[in-house]
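Input record (one chain):
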Amino acid sequence: MVSRLMLGCGSVGHAIVESVAERPGSIVVVDDSESRVETLRTEGVSATRGDPTDPDVIAERPLVDVAFVAGDDPERNRRAARALRQEYPNAYLVAYTGDRPSDAARDELADLADRLIDPGEAIVERLLSMTSEDAAFRTHELQRALRDIDGKLGIFMHDNPDPDAIASAVALAEIAEAVGTEAETCYYGAISHQENRAFVNLLDLNLRNLDPEDDLSEFAGIALVDHSSPSVNDQLPEGTPVDVVIDHHPPNHPVEAEFVDLRSGVGATSSLLADHLEHIGGDPDERVATGLLYGIRVDTKDFTREVSEADFEAAAFLLPHADTSVLERVESPSISPETFETIARAIRNRELDRTVLASCVGALSDRDALAQAADRLLDMEGVNVTLVFGFTNGVVYISARARGTDIDLGETMRAAFGQIGSAGGHADMAGAQIPLGLLGEVEEEEEVSLTSIVSEIVIDRFFETVRSRPDVDEYGTDRERVASFDIKLAESDE
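The corresponding structure, as predicted from the sequence alone:
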C-alpha cells in the first residue's frame, strides 16, 4: 500500500486530497492552520497540526512513498521540500510552486521535486495521475528497486524467448545500468525461430543462455520479464526470491516481488518498458528502441491483436529512435527445412471439429515451429481456432491461435490442460506444456504409437473443452479426463 504525506494544504492541496483520498493506500496532511486541519478531519481525512517545514515533524512519519508539498506560500513550500528531501530522499515528490513564486523558489522546487505543478496548469486533472497508479511514480519505484540491489541483477526471460521477452529484458538492463546496477539478460532453452535468431544477431544483443544446473549465486537480484513466476515457463528453482516483475500477461496466481508492474490490458511487455524509458527521459538507445518496437509489433501482430492505446503510444515514442531498416531485414529471414516439415506435418495430420482445427506433429526438433504452424493453419478457410502440438524431452508442447471467435483461448487452455500441466495465455494466443510422464519411457521405435496416444488425449481434451458440454459439471469433466489420461498412460507402459 502506498503511504502519502502532504506538507501544507492550500486550495491546490485540497484538490489533491479529494483526488487521492479514496485511492488505495493512505494520506496524512500536516498543516499549521488549526481551522484547516479541523475541516479536513470533518471530511474524513487524516490531518495533524504542525509545521510542514520542520524536519522533526516530517520524521514522525514511519514511511513516505509519495509526498506532496501543496501550500500557497512559495517560500514555505521551498522549505518544506528541502525538509522532505532531508528525511526521505527517495520519496516521490510532487511540489506546487505556490502563488506568484520567485524565479529562485521555482528553480529550487524544480530541482527538489520529481514533478512540479505551476498555478496555470489544470490542477486536478493533472494531479489525478500523481498517485501510485501513475506511470511516472511507477518508474520512480522501479528505479528505486533496481538501485537497492547490491550486486548483479539477473534479468530472466521465459524459456525459448520471443522478441517481446528479449527486447524487454534488454531494455530493463539499460534502465538498471543507468541507476548504477550491473545487469545480465538470461534465458533457458533455445532461440530457434529464424526471425528471433535474426533479431538477436542483427541487433547484436548480448544474451546469456543458462542450463538448469548453473549456479545462480552470482546474482544479487532476480527480475522476470514477460512472465511473472519463477519455475513457471522458466527453469528457475521454484520459490526463487524475485525483485522485479514486468509482464503484460494476466496472472492466474499471486505475484510476489519487491516491484511488480502487471498491466494485462496492454498488448506487449515491450510497451511497458517503453513507457518506463519515456518517463526516465532522454533518448533511448537505438538498439533498444528497435527491439522494443519489434517486440510490440510481433506480440500485437502488427497492431491487430489485443492492441491497446498504450501500445500505439509506445510505438510512437520508439519510432523516431528505431532503425526500421533492421526490422525489414529481421522480417525476411530464411526458413529452415525443419520448420517447413513441421508445418507440412501439421497440415497433413489436422483434425477438424466445426471451425476448430487441431494437429499433432509428433517429435519436435524446433519448438518455435509450433507457433508458426498454428498461425499458418489459421489462414485456412472455415477455421477460426487452431491448436498444434508435439513432444520433445519428455514434454508435450502446445501452441494455439484464435481469430474472429468468442472463445478465450487462455481460459480454454487452462481448463483443458491446467490439471495435467501448465497452461495459459491471451484470448487469441495461448500455449501449454504437459509432462509425458510414463510415456517418456517409450522407446524411439514406438514413436508412432506415442504420437497416436498423445494426439488422442490432447485433441479429445481440447475439443471437449471448446464444446463446453452442459450435461457434465466442470469438476466431473476434469476428473473424467484425468482418469482417462492416467488409464492411457498405464496402458502405454504395459
